[in-house]
Amino acid sequence: MKQSTKVVLILVMIALLPVMVKLQSEIDPQRKQFLPERQIVSSVVTQVGNNPVVLPSQFVAGALIGFREVVAGLLWVRCNDFFHSGNYDAIVPLTRIVTWLDPHQIDVYSVGAWHLAYNFVDRQSRADRRLLIPAMKFLEEGIANNPNLWDLYFELGYTMNYWKKHDYDKAVYWIREATKRDPPYYVHTQLAHAYERSGQVDKAIEQWRKCYNMTNKALKKKFDESTYQIREVSKKNLDLTIWRQMDRAEKAKNPRDLNFDAEFKRLGPRKFRISGRINLPDGARVEVSLVDADYKEPSPKKFSWEVDPNLTMMYDAGINGISVQDGRFDRVYDLSLDPKQHPLAKDKYVLTVWFNPRNATQDIKDASGFSGECMTDKRYLDTSTKGLRIVKKVIILDREDII
Q1: C-alpha to C-alpha distance for 340 and 313, rounded to whole angstroms
Q2: Domain spans of the chain?
């Protein structure tokens, strides 16, 4: 190619560049409401704690000339590299940048929230509870940007409220919102589980029946193995839930005395033992939390991964609780291993040890009931939540008791 021809082509490309940028910005008629803020586009470095993540200049240039989705895709690939190398700190700011560039990548919201809520753990594999609210706010932002898709509603309901926070009323709300947006059948079955966990057993039965009828109708039109499996599971769970409701109503007439108690014993600096007794079958889980006495759950308007570095929120809840064996439970805690996650910087703490039947497996619920209707306790029965009976012991500790 002649040199003069090359020059002409380069000049044509330069002349067409503004047109290309204009066309790119007008492809999506809703694009303007999703444009990242000016200071975000011009920034090339973001940071979590002491871990800086550099956004290469060519990525910034690509975003500025209109190739936001392309840049977002490349950064998402980079996130995958960080995940496989175990550099979780770097993933969060990159997912933040990706969602600024392309707020329609719902997988980014989902994975970013999951990293925050599950992957930042101490040396005893205990997730950093301080990051749960940011994780949920990230999903709420994703929902606001993608209101017609079911996926993030389900993530917020099931992955966060159902499994992590154990707030089953909110789990019901968000999963039910997901069912309004044409999701797969399994989302409808998880709504039935959430109804039961929230104590709404009649609605759980109704939902299982709905799942059965829905899949049965679909199978009459066309056979599909996965739909068949869901239909059979729905029928089995429908029958079991009806039977359990009747069986546990009979057991509730003569509730089991749990004879619950728990104690705290300091073993050394930032090291202590939680032990006690509870009259439940082997495999039941007793839950524990240690929280600053002045803690109040925040209600941020916008997502931010920044948390109070002086806040202590240690949780062993749900399946991570202390296992019961022969009516006893016992676990040693060593918070000296992770002072950043458990700073213990305040003067007073609330240690709570409890058993919540709604968090239990079905075999344990056979002894406690759906919502504790089959159990009682002379000293520590707590009925402060309407329709729920738990056993709970609260111990107030000074910093010197732990340090």
Answers
A1: 11
A2: 192-251, 256-402
